[in-house]
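Inputs:
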Amino acid sequence: MVPLGSGIVAVNPKVASVSDTISVDIKGYNTHFQEAGSSIKAWLKIDTLKLISCATSVSVANDQSITAKFHVPSIKLSKNDYLFADVVVNDSKDGNVMLDEAIRITNKSDDTLAAMSSSAASSNCIDDIKNTKATYLHFPYRSILYESIRNLYFHVPMWFTMMLIITISLVYSIKYLRTFNLNDDIIAVEASKVGIFFGVLGLITGSIWARFTWGAWWVNDVKVNGAAVTLLIYFAYLILRNSIDDEQKRARIAAVYSIIAFTMLVLFLIIFPRMNDSLHPGNGGNPGFNKYDLDSSMRMVFYPAVIGWCLLGMWILNIRIRMNRITKYFFEK
Amino acid sequence: MLLKEVKSLIKKEVALEIRQKYAFGGLLLYVISTVFICYLSFKRVIEPPVYVALFWIIMLFAAINAIAKSFLSESRGLQLYFYSLASPEAVILSKIIYNLVLMLLLSLINLFFYILFLGNIIQDMPMFLLSLILGSFGFSSVMSMVSAIASKANHNVTLMAILSFPILIPLIMTVIRFSKNAIDGLDFSVNYQYIVMLVGLNVIVIALAYILFPYLWRNE
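Outputs:
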């Protein structure tokens, strides 16, 4: 199995004062500190000031933990103010691993210290770094997501497939109203059934993902609720079909409702999420998923996965249509 | 031509309604008794979110009762007779307009008794009335169409609820937010997006009804 990339899970202590010398325990995830040995470098990074402070010494405990001594730079900071410093570790095997806003820098004394004149003075440790990326194939390491990032290959393609197959259902519903050919009705109803199936799978995979990232099986999110209501509408479509006996009449009325249902689907899954804030990536100020996949290693699997799931959906649809036709053929005989 | 047909069809609806007074009387009694139950269970002025949610839930069920019968009550023979006289577009448009008037009347009566029993906490009355108009419009257009569909399927009122509730959800959510803002007296600029959304929803549903109704209507 392709492992998750390396990352820093936690540092201790989390608070430091300016001009202090601190000894920081750094806990890594999937890191190879022992293997990398003496090539390990660590530094504090303060983005707002473009400041870098290198570790004076690094000692390796095991693959997942190191202790680094830092000198917190003397920066201009009033008494109740604070700044965040990122902790970055680099070694020959894992490349750069980093924890954002790991250490809060405060000022204990009353006097505001003079800002450091230049950041170059203490950044000499990053001059000779060759590789900043891990040397092995891996998933991006993201806090909150962690290993569940693999779910991207299941959850998102489910909705792609659902949209594709429900669109087929719409096309054949319209086609039926133009031709009144019962063959089109068979395709429309089977497509909506397979579409519902993939929609339910999308809800289930999403629910599991939500439990591990947002903390609950069901969250009050505009996309989640919209998807649920869309499925309700399509269930209503199936119930409507079952309540009419005459074939031609059933096909005609179901086709009309199917067109209304698709309009609602577009409203719920495409228009409403763009009008309201959502917890999903790419909505409500959240970064899109492409921001997580910096080296495109996930795209390599994601695009084929989308195509694969769509083809699988089409294959199921194909089998169901043929089954339906055969049943009808024997029934009429 | 279409206008003339719509006009005479609405006249027919009104004449029927006046002749069958019990139907409207039943709706009236439904609204009044539901509001009275709300009053008995709260017995005080209630919070705006509950106030507005209860109001629209009463409206929702009144709408189901009122509009379900618009197609369900007509026999197949009668529908065939209309089919030979008027175009399907005229039939659905007349139903939507007539149901809109009916819903508006019901919502005003509902509002009157609501204020009488539960108190008036509405700060921006014109805005609230606008939400009533847009909400009634949405109810009448969605329900008229769904009633037409349900009437073809074994004349089933349960089916009517199953088919229309999911479709009504976006409408109800929007109209509840809109009328709650009216109760809180928020500025027009906050409500602007809700008005646009409600008008958009109504336009979409009426366009769909106009295009799709002929397919429900024909070869019965």
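Remarks. Chain B touches chain A at residues 145, 149, 152-154, 156, 159, 162-163, 165-167, 169-170, 193, 197, 201, 204, 208, 212, 215-216, 219 (CB under 8 Å). The helical segments of chain B are 2-19, 21-42, 48-72, 76-85, 88-118, 125-152, 157-184, 188-217.
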